[in-house]
Description:
By secondary structure, the protein is of the alpha/beta class.
Amino acid sequence: MRSSSFPKGMLAIADLGCASGPNTLLLMSEVIKFVHNLSKELGQESPELQIFLNDLPGNDFNHVFTSIQGFKENMKKEMGAQAFIVGVPGSFYDRLFPTDSIHFIHSSYSLHWRSQVPEGLEENKGNIYLASSSPPCVLEAYYKQFQTNFSSFLKFRAQELVTGGRMVLTLPGRRGEESSERECCYIWGLMSIALNQMASEGLIDQQKLDSFNLPMYMPSAMEEEAEVQKQGSFAIERLEVWDMNWDAGYEGEVTSLPAGDGGYNLSKCMEAVFDPVIAHHFHLSREITDEVFKRYGLLLSDWMAKESPAFVSLTVSLTKRH
């Protein structure tokens, strides 16, 4: 955007996988501030902003909408920014916007989710995602699902972005092709342990556990780059691989969990995301679901006391080719 082609009338921005909660509008506030400051730097008025917040239809858009009016008023008061915000329910693996209508697309920690659980995971019993005990056919099934989804994502975004439009995508991933299980998958291995313990005690159904696999895939930087190059509509401006400790950024109260509070805090974060997935698949009561995450928190705490595990994340900046 730092060029003479910076839009002077209207700037269309989309946040894909916006979710619902206090962070939903945080990214948009940063974008608005950037646009405002850059406009001043270029000596021109800030463009009007058309902001699209996208997530699946089941997202709590009502909660998002109740926050919009106050957000718009604050942005206008602080910077004189005029922002028009709408919700766009739908999968980002399908078309979402008209052709050549969007200037900037952002997505953070959403693109690791696949459109469906890959087919052919029958031999992955005892695991809920990739693990060292997963046979090669399971890895291949997950990888093919990633290729299918990410190729569709790039194709549709290329149709929707204007020429020279940009995307910034951040998602959990792996450093390289031979990355260890601990780098990207061990956090799910601990969940597998908790679920298998409870199945052995008859607290959850063993058959349901055998059929449970998470619909996601954490690609390596090379895999992500290969798909971008194969699709051909985008140039990679920057691709970064970075680490974040499992308990980074926690500033809450210390808990009384015997094994320490780090695992408890991370377990609560994971529960916010995966509680609906687990409850839906296993049809568990609230009491049993709470027990799942209690045990998971203890396993996390024990592991974090021995190791310094980190999430690996990929951030890529892409520009649509002419």
